[in-house]
């Protein structure tokens, strides 16, 4: 997302290309997951026993942790999501390194999967504006 | 495609093995081994095996439905808390609290993702087995657990003059579309769509609570009710007749299960639930769900106009009180 900040002042074209290529697998998975959530999820209705749902979990995991680690986390989650599991709350491990003070920089799926935090943030900024 | 096939390979093997097993049993029972009807029954047998394996999941869901009664008061509170908050984050927060509530009460109305995902490779591999039969026949090979001889037999087996691997559009493109293929395909496509539509319509009109009906996903689901037949109609012209048989049979199974649920275990707060309570009342059985307090309140409310009538037959649930 904002890795250019850590790489100093000279973001060469080569660096940009390398970063783009590095993120290709992740971005393909993100597109597939978003399509699934748009098209297939509404057809089936909710079946998942967890919050966030398996597809939301996978989308966050891949967005935050990349294709390999994200897929690994997601696969383990789907295997956990069987009829005899208790379900409940099950957030993606090691949460995103995000700028909690500026929600606009946080990917939407991360916000949606941690609604309480971002709702509090929203209220805070609203009351600050009002004051 | 290679990766996809590698994953599907074991599933293809299982699917073909189950079909061959049913075919063998039916043949020993005296059915014609080369008949399309025997192979059709084998496909239906495959559906029965897969759906029967999923019965524990269904039972689990029904038990959870009973548990839902207990958390109704908490659920009402939660709905009141988020009333009128329609923004995405609030909806998510409500969903999160709902899930925590289910866990707290040790019940969960959802059937989980794994069973749904497991069914997918079975369906894809059946599709591959059925559509790969003609190719395997010409290449002199078997498919999964099916020997080449069985592949030939399957490929040449016909039902009302159409082969199980025939599909409407491919036959048309290949220039070998016959009237039987066209009629049988279209009839099966309609049967597949109708069974699905009726099941979905039943769930939505009878077995959804009022809260769910006003929920944020209802509009989407209503649209899907009509979009889905279209999707399957267009997809169906590419499906081999064998796949259409599989899909229709599995839909009919779902329909039967759903009918059972609507009749015996309706969702609290749904129209089906009200009918269910009425039937129980007519039979003199105690009302479900309503706590003891409300039942007593109802009895008290009813009693004044009962006092004036003599020889009124007493309801069973009133006798004990």
UniProtKB/TrEMBL annotation, chain A:
Organism domain of life: Bacteria
Q: What UniProt keywords are attached to this protein's entry?
A: Cell membrane, Membrane
Q: How does it sit in the membrane?
A: Peripheral membrane protein
This entry carries the following GO cellular component terms, namely: plasma membrane
Q: Where in the cell is it found?
A: Cell membrane
Q: What is its main location?
A: membrane
Answer whether the UniProt record assigns the keyword Cell membrane to this protein. Answer: yes
Please report which protein family the annotation says this sequence is part of.
Belongs to the UPF0161 family.
NCBIfam families (alphabetical): membrane protein insertion efficiency factor YidD (TIGR00278)
Query: What task does this protein carry out?
Result: Could be involved in insertion of integral membrane proteins into the membrane.
Name of the protein:
Putative membrane protein insertion efficiency factor
Query: What is the protein's species of origin?
Result: Arthrobacter psychrochitiniphilus
UniProtKB/TrEMBL annotation, chain B:
- GO biological process terms on file: protein insertion into membrane; protein transport
Q: Where is the Membrane insertase YidC/Oxa/ALB C-terminal domain?
A: 39-262
* Classification via InterPro entries: YidC/ALB3/OXA1/COX18, YidC/Oxa/ALB_C, YidC_ALB_C
Q: Which keywords does this chain's UniProt record carry?
A: Cell membrane, Chaperone, Membrane, Protein transport, Transmembrane, Transmembrane helix, Transport
Q: Where does it reside?
A: Cell membrane; Membrane
> Which Gene Ontology CC terms are recorded?
plasma membrane
Per the entry, what this protein does is:
Required for the insertion and/or proper folding and/or complex formation of integral membrane proteins into the membrane. Involved in integration of membrane proteins that insert both dependently and independently of the Sec translocase complex, as well as at least some lipoproteins. Aids folding of multispanning membrane proteins.
Keyword Magnesium annotated: no
Identify its membrane topology class.
Answer: Multi-pass membrane protein
* Family to which this protein belongs: Belongs to the OXA1/ALB3/YidC family. Type 1 subfamily.
Q: What is this protein called?
A: Membrane protein insertase YidC
The record's principal subcellular location, in a coarse class, is membrane
Summarize the subunit comment.
Interacts with the Sec translocase complex via SecD. Specifically interacts with transmembrane segments of nascent integral membrane proteins during membrane integration.
Q: What domain of life is recorded for the organism?
A: Bacteria
Q: Could you tell me which NCBIfam families the record lists for this protein?
A: PRK01315.1, yidC_oxa1_cterm
GO MF annotations, alphabetized: membrane insertase activity
One Pfam family matching this protein? 60KD_IMP
């Amino acid at each position: 997302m904002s890795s250019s900040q850590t790489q100093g002042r000279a973001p060469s074209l080569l660096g940009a290309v390398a970063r783009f290529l590095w993120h290709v697998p992740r971005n393909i998975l993100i597109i597939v997951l978003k399509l699934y959530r748009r098209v297939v999820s509404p057809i089936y209705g909710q079946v998942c026993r967890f919050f966030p749902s398996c597809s939301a979990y996978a989308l966050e995991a891949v967005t935050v942790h990349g294709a390999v680690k994200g897929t690994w986390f997601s696969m383990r989650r789907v295997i956990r999501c069987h009829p005899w599991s208790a379900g409940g709350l099950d957030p993606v491990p090691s949460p995103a390194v995000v700028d909690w003070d500026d929600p606009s920089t946080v990917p939407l799926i991360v916000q949606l999967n941690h609604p309480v935090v971002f709702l509090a943030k929203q209220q805070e900024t609203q009351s600050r504006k009002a004051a | 495609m290679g990766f996809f096939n590698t994953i599907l390979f074991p599933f293809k093997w299982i699917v073909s093995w189950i079909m061959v097993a049913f075919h063998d049993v039916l043949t020993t029972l005296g059915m014609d081994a080369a008949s399309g009807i025997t192979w059709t029954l084998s496909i239906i047998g495959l559906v029965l095996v897969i759906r029967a394996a999923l019965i524990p999941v269904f039972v689990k869901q029904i038990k959870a439905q009973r548990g839902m009664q207990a958390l109704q008061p908490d659920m009402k509170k939660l709905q009141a808390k988020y009333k009128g908050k329609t923004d995405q984050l609030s909806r998510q927060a409500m969903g999160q609290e709902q899930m925590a509530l289910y866990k707290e009460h040790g019940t969960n109305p959802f059937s989980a993702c794994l069973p749904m995902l497991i069914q997918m490779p079975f369906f894809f591999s059946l599709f591959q087995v059925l559509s790969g039969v003609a190719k395997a026949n010409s290449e002199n090979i078997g498919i999964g657990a099916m020997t080449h001889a069985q592949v030939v037999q399957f490929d040449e087996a016909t039902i009302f003059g159409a082969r199980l691997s025939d599909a409407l559009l491919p036959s048309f493109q290949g220039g070998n579309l016959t009237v039987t293929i066209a009629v049988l395909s279209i009839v099966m496509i309609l049967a597949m769509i109708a069974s699905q539509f009726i099941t979905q319509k039943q769930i939505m009109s009878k077995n959804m609570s009022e809260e769910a009906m006003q929920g944020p996903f209802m509009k989407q689901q209503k649209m899907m009710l009509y979009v889905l037949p279209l999707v399957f109609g267009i997809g169906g012209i590419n499906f081999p007749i064998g796949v259409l048989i599989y899909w229709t049979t599995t839909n009919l199974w779902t329909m039967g299960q759903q009918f059972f649920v609507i009749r015996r275990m309706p969702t609290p707060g749904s129209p089906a639930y009200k009918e269910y309570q009425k039937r129980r009342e007519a039979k003199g059985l105690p009302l479900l769900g309503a706590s003891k307090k409300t039942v007593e309140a109802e009895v008290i409310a009813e009693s004044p106009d009962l006092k004036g009538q003599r020889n009124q037959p007493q309801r069973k649930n009133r006798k004990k009180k």
